[in-house]
Design goal:
The chain is an alpha/beta fold. The protein contains 10 helices and 9 strands. Helix 4 crosses helix 6.
């Protein structure tokens, strides 16, 4: 299996590389299921100060990332190995979800562009960016954290990355709903018990309970999600049962 390669254009390469040092992403990197390569625009700046930003036209606070060093870094990344589209991490992009992560996992290579300061010169976006992606309707200091979130979300979709083959299937948002509750030993904590069905050994009953809880929790905590899910007759019956019990 060919490793999924992430090329990240960033001013802070060591920060981004930390994503592959821990947990399942570290295991994925060790097993050559993913590869992470960084490209620093400062390496492509042509002045002695390695300048990558400048004051915005029209005035205003902050600095704007310049076209030339960013474009040179992106073009260098594009020329490496197989071609890839450039994904710019920005609040203006479509919001990352499980479906998009699964789609990105089908690719062989993804170039992630991380902005900083007040943003990137719009002409660079027009010239070099193929897609825009957001991790939510809020602002962080740069594109590095969104890039790391994207790498994690996409990588865990790959076969062999998670420790159990069913883990990705049972993740939250798989099938458009939240995950079910989980329990482990001991059976009692401060008078609160593990649901009896999970101790029954009846795998069919456990599966049905988990599906019912996943649907019910989604209806209770994220009702806008449940409205978008096409429920089977069985799912609707399970959800109706949950609603009846929990009001």
């Amino acid at each position: 299996m060919t490793a999924l390669r992430f090329d990240v254009v960033t001013l802070f390469p060591e920060f981004v590389k930390a994503v592959q040092n821990y947990g399942v992403i570290a295991r994925a990197a060790d097993q050559k299921l993913i590869e992470l390569v960084t490209w620093n625009p400062r390496d492509y700046a042509t002045d002695r100060h390695r300048t990558v930003d400048d004051r915005p036209y029209g005035g205003g606070p902050g600095m704007v990332m310049k076209v030339e060093p960013l474009r040179a870094a992106i073009q260098a990344a594009r020329q490496a190995d197989q071609p890839a589209s450039v994904v710019y991490l920005t609040p203006e992009g479509g919001q990352l979800n499980n479906e998009i992560a699964a789609s990105l996992a089908q690719r062989e290579r993804i170039i992630l562009l991380c902005g900083r300061y007040e943003g990137i010169d719009e002409r660079l976006i027009e010239l070099e960016v193929d897609e825009e992606l957001s991790i939510g309707d809020y602002v962080v200091s740069g594109g590095e954290l969104p890039a790391m979130v994207t790498i994690d979300a996409v990588a865990r979709q790959l076969p062999g990355v998670l420790g159990h083959s069913e883990s990705a299937v049972q993740d939250a948002f798989t099938g458009g709903v939240l995950d079910c509750p989980h329990y482990t030993r001991p059976e009692q904590i401060d008078g609160r018990s593990v649901p009896e069905v999970l101790l029954s050994g009846d795998h069919g009953a456990v599966a049905q309970w988990r599906r019912r809880e996943a649907l019910g929790r989604t209806w209770r905590k994220r009702p806008e999600l449940i409205e978008q899910v096409k429920l089977s007759a069985e799912d609707q019956a399970l959800l109706d049962s949950y609603k009846s019990e929990h009001g």
